[in-house]
């Protein structure tokens, strides 16, 4: 079976800086893949590469069997950035209908997407009059309206209270169960437990691709944050100059 996302030897340089370094991985369809790592590890750059809006230095990125950014993927890939991409002077449903119209979606489709993110009760309210948690979900509805096969979300739960975060993860799980592939970035390791698979990044390198259970096993602890920290420390020891000199 062709994976939903296939990345081979992907490297991205920005000036003299290596932002991503020789990444290779596959993402299966209908799963939630968590993209985890500290701030500055390259998560947003990688998501942009999967969308096809990031210039890559070398390597290959395929999405749904086609090169990332191919025009034919326009209706199949949804992207939610960290900054909300909505018009504050429009109502919730008008925002979603506006973005949906570019995909040939109707107002009924827009209302369905609004309901899917729990904003049906405020569908006619202007975006600027929403609470912070409601406002952030408008962008998600805009991305969902075209029913994308792949949904990429860049830290969608930042700034949300625990109840809203839990509600969104419940919705993400339902979407995956219905066949949507989700790639969700976060720097909060507790959210890793909601994912089927994890891509762990540090300083632009892929430390590991594994399940939450495998991460706990490798870190020898049920605490995912501590397990990731132990993985980082082991990687530092492996790549430190002192270790290489001693081994040579």
Automatic annotation (TrEMBL):
Q: Name one GO molecular function term.
A: ATP binding
Per the record's keyword annotation, is tRNA processing included, yes or no? no
SUPFAM superfamilies xref list:
P-loop containing nucleoside triphosphate hydrolases (SSF52540)
ABC transporter domain mapped to chain residues: 5-228
Keyword terms of this UniProt record = ATP-binding, Nucleotide-binding
Query: What is this protein identified as?
Result: Multidrug ABC transporter ATP-binding protein
Give the species. Answer: Arthrobacter alpinus
């Amino acid at each position: 079976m062709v994976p939903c996302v296939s990345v081979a030897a992907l490297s991205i340089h920005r000036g003299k800086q290596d932002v991503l370094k020789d990444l290779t991985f596959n993402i299966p369809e209908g799963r939630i893949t968590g993209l985890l790592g500290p701030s500055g590890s390259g998560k947003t750059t990688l998501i942009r590469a999967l969308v096809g809006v990031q210039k890559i230095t070398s390597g290959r990125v395929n999405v749904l069997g086609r090169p990332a950014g191919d025009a034919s993927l326009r209706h199949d890939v949804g992207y939610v950035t960290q900054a909300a991409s909505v018009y504050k002077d429009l109502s919730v449903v008008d925002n979603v209908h506006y973005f949906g119209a570019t995909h040939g979606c109707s107002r009924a489709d827009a209302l369905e997407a609004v309901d899917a993110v729990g904003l049906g009760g405020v569908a006619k309210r202007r975006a600027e009059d929403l609470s912070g948690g409601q406002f952030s979900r408008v962008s998600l509805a805009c991305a969902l309206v075209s029913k994308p096969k792949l949904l990429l979300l860049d830290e969608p739960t930042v700034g949300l209270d625990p109840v809203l975060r839990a509600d969104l993860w419940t919705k993400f799980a339902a979407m995956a169960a219905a066949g949507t592939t989700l790639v969700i970035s976060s720097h909060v390791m507790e959210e890793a437990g909601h994912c089927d698979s994890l891509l762990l990044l540090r300083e632009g390198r892929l430390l590991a691709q594994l399940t939450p259970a495998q991460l706990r096993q490798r870190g020898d602890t049920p605490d995912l944050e501590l397990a990731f920290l132990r993985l980082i420390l082991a990687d530092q020891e492996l790549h430190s100059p002192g270790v290489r000199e001693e081994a040579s």
